[in-house]
Amino acid sequence: MTRNVRAHALVIGYRREQLKERLIDKIPPAEIIGGRCIGCGCDVYVNIYGASAIRERDADVCCPRCESEYDADITRGMVES
Q1: Taking the CB of the first residue and of the last residue of the chain, which one, N or C, has fewer CB atoms within 10 A?
Q2: What Å distances lie between residue 11 and 1, 2, 4, CA to CA?
Q3: Are strands 32-36 and 10-12 parallel, antiparallel or unpaired?
Q4: What is the DSSP letter of 41?
Q5: Parallel, antiparallel, or unpaired for β 60-62 and 43-46?
Q6: Can you give the C-alpha Rg of the chain in angstroms?
Q7: Running along the chain, 81 residues long, what does each successive block of 10 average in pLDDT?
């Protein structure tokens, strides 16, 4: 009997209020909604590479605020699930 095991990955994106500064500095811009943050539930924006990682790795998304505030708890929760 085989078990279906889900591999977890985490993509850190940008919150809406960070998009303006992100557009100035980086190419390609983060203009794709990658999903909702696993910490606070806000929309998280990613670029094409982030969208690809979410799709190919079945990754969760996190905003920078929650990543910096809950880093250890988010990582632990992903390992345990």
Answers
A1: N
A2: 32, 28, 22
A3: unpaired
A4: -
A5: unpaired
A6: 14
A7: 55 83 67 91 92 88 87 59 41
52, amino acid identity? S
* Phi–psi pair at 22, nearest 5 degrees: -65, -40
Structural contact between residues 57 and 36, judged by C-beta atoms closer than 8 angstroms: no
> Which helix H or strand E contains 10, and what residues bound it?
strand 10-12
Reading the block at residue 6, the tokens are: 């889900």
Residue with tokens 């209020």: 17
Which tokens belong to 65? 């605020």
- Domain ranges for the chain, please list them: 10-80
Q: Return the residue matching tokens 């690809």.
A: 52
What integer pLDDT is reported at residue 80 of this predicted model? 43
